[in-house]
Amino acid sequence: MDQSKRRRGRREGDGRKSYRPSLGKERSKRLSLCLIGMLPVLVVHGGAGQIPKERVEMASAGVRAAARAGYAVLQGGRSSMDAVVEAVTNLENNPSFNAGYGSVLNVKGEVEMDAIVMDGRTLASGAVSAVRNIANPIQLARLVMEQTSHLCLTAGGAGQFARAMGMPEVPGDSLITEYARMRWKKNLAPNANPVECQMGKMGTVGAVAVDEDGNIACATSTGGMLNKMEGRVGDTACIGCGGYADNRAGAVSPTGHGEAIMKVTLARLILFHMAQGMSPEEASDLGLATMKERVEGLGGVVTVDPQGRWAARFTSTQMAWAAAQGGTLHFGVFSGEDVTQGIGDPADG
Amino acid sequence: MKAVLVVHGGAWAIPDELAEASVKGVKAAASEGYRVLGTGGSALDAVEKAVRAMEDNPVFDAGHGAVLNADGEVELDAIIMDGQTLGSGAVSCVQNIANPVSLARAVMEKTDHVMLTSRGANLFAERIGFKTAPTETLVTAYERREWEKAKEYGAGVKELFRSQLCHDTVGAVAVDSCGNVACATSTGGIRNKMVGRVGDSPVIGAGGYADNRSGAVSCTGHGESILKVTLARLIIFHIEQGKEVEDAVELSLRYMDERVHGGGGAIAVSPSGQWAATFTTERMAWAAAEQGTLWTRRGALQRQQRPDWTYDFEEVTGCLGTLTTTAIDEKSCYVTPQQW
C-alpha cells in the first residue's frame, strides 16, 4: 500500500471526505497541546516477555526505528491510523519480532497471524485472525475495516479477502526465520521446559498514537504463541483485548500472555480506568495488576490519552518499547528504564 | 443464594410467522436450563444446557437453523465463560458442529487456549470425538430459500435486506445457588456474511462476559456494533460502578445506539440474583426463570417504548417439579393451565 500519496485531510468512516466544523474550544485546546509538544505522539512496543540477552539490542533498535517511522508520518500531518499502521508494518517486516516475518510457529510448524487496528474517532475497527501467507497482516486488518462491513475475518476467509484485495500471497516459508524454527523444534521435545518454552518469543508488536487533530488509533500484530494449537486465536484479534482506541478516553496496545489478556479484556479495562480520571500510567499499572492477581498473567502495554500523556508499563521481565513526542525519542527494555535521545539523532542499529 | 437463569433467542425484527415458535423456544430452553440449577447444578452447566436446547431448535440462528454465508456454507461462533475463574472457551467459524457451545466449553476445559477458529477448531473437535453434522441437517429449507433470494438480488439491495437480517443469536446467563455466574452465546452469524466473518458472539467482552464479582452478560443484535463498544464488558463495567443490572444494560444499549448507531439486546444477571432482559431492536425473544417462576413477555415480543423503559410482562407461575406453567390468554386474560 502506497501511503505517501494520501492527501492530507481526515476521512469519514465510509471514505468520503467531509467538512466538519470544529468547536472553537476543542480546537484551541488541541492547538495548545501541539504547541507545547504533547501532540502528536506515538508509542510502540515489540513485545513483553523474557527477551534473551543476545536479542535485547536488536529488539530495542527495532522499536526505535519503528517509532521514528511512525512519528515521521505524524509530523507530515497525516493521521494516527496511518502512523500506527506504518510503525507496525515496520515491525512486521523486521524478522526480530513475532509478527509478519519472524512470527513464531504453531504446533505444526506453520505461521498463523492475528492483527487489529482501531480508529478512536468512529470506533471503527478491522481485525484478522489465523491468517496465513501474507507479509503484513496489519494492512489486511485495515482493509477489513475500510473495505468491508465487518470487523473481523478469520483463516481461509481472511485469505480469500486478501486475494480479492490484490494483496500478494507469500510462501509460508518466507515468513519463517531460523530462530523461530529452532524455538519450535525445541518446544516439540516431550521434556521441553514450559518456562523456557515461551522465552524469547519476542512478543507481539503494537502501537498507539494521537495525531495533531486529536484522533487516536491503535494497531497490534502477532504470530501468536510458540507451538500454539492450529487455529488458536489470542488477544490480538479480539477488540477490547488486544487493542482499543477511543477519542474520548485513549488507546491501548497490549502484549504478553494472550489468554490472560483476554480473560480480563485488558485494553478495555485500562480505558475504563482512564475514563474515570486515572492517568495512563496509573490505569495501565492497575490493569496489569488485576491481570496478575485474577488470572496470574504477565504482560505489558503502551497507552496514550487524548492529551498526549503516554505510558509504557509491564509486569513481565522486559518489554522493548519506544515513544516519540515533541522531537524526543524515549525508549527502554528493562523495568524502570527510560532513555531519551533526539528524534533527529542518527538512527542506530 | 437465589438461582436465576435468563435466556435470549435473538434481538431483531422477528417476523410474525417466527414469533410464536421463538417464544416457545426460549421458554423451553429456560426451563431446561433452570432444571439444572434447581437440582443444585452449576451456572456453567445450566447455561450450556439452555444454549444447547436453542442450538437444537431450528427456529434460532445457532447450530440447527444457522444461516448460510456468502459461499452457501455454515460457519458457527460460540462462547462460554465461567465467572468463578474467568475461564473462557470460544470457537469462531467452526463448520458442521451441531452444538458449538459444547465445543467452546471443551476449548476452555481441555486446552490452554481461549479461542480456536475455523479448521483448527474442527480438527480439535474431531480429536475429542465431536461428531460432524452434515450441512443439510443444520440448514432449514426456509433458510436455503431466503439465501437463494438474497443471492439473486445481489449487492444492490443489500441495505434493504439489512433491516431484515436475522440476528437471532442465542444466549444464556445464570447464577447458581453457590453464587457463581456464567454466560454462553452461540450463533450462525448473518445471512450472506463474508466467508470467515467473525461477529461479536465468540469475542470475550463483546458477545458475553462473566465475573463472579459483578455478573454475567450475553448480547445479541448487530454484531459489528456490539464489538465496537465491547457491549458485554461495558455492561459489567456499569454494574461494577454500582448500577442496578437493568440500568447497566439500558445505559450500555443507549450508548451503542448513540455512538455507533447499532441496535441490539442483552440479558444480564448479578451474583445476588438481580436480572434484566432489554433491547433496542423491534423485538427480542427472551425468558427468565427464578424460584420456580418463568417470566416472559406477554404477547411475546412487544417493542419497548422509549424514553419510557418499563416492562410490560406478566408473571407466569409454575412449579419446578413437574414444570407446569400457566399461560395468559391474551384475548380474554383467562388463565389456562398448560403442560411443558
General description of the model:
The complex is a heterodimer of chains A (349) and B (340). Chain A has a 9-stranded mixed sheet with strand order 4-3-2-6-5-1-12-13-14. A 4-stranded antiparallel sheet of chain A has the order 8-9-10-11. The two termini of chain A are 26 Å apart. Helices cover 34% and strands 23% of the residues of chain A. The longest helix of chain A has 23 residues, at 53-75. In chain A, helix 2 runs antiparallel to helix 3 and helix 9 (266-275) packs across helix 10. Chain A has helices spanning 24-35, 53-75, 80-93, 137-147, 155-164, 178-188, 194-198, 258-263, 266-275, 280-295; strands spanning 41-49, 113-119, 124-131, 152-154, 205-210, 216-222, 232-233, 244-246, 250-256, 299-304, 310-314, 318-325, 328-334, 339-342. Chain A has 349 residues and is of the alpha+beta class. With 340 residues, chain B is an alpha+beta fold. Chain B contains 10 helices and 15 strands. In chain B, the strands form 2 sheets. In chain B, strands 4-3-2-6-5-1-11-12-13-14-15 form an 11-stranded mixed sheet. Chain B has a 4-stranded antiparallel sheet with strand order 7-8-9-10. In chain B, a hairpin with a 3-residue loop joins strand 7 and strand 8 (215-221). In chain B, helix 1 (16-38) packs antiparallel against helix 2. The interface between A and B is large, with 43 and 42 residues.
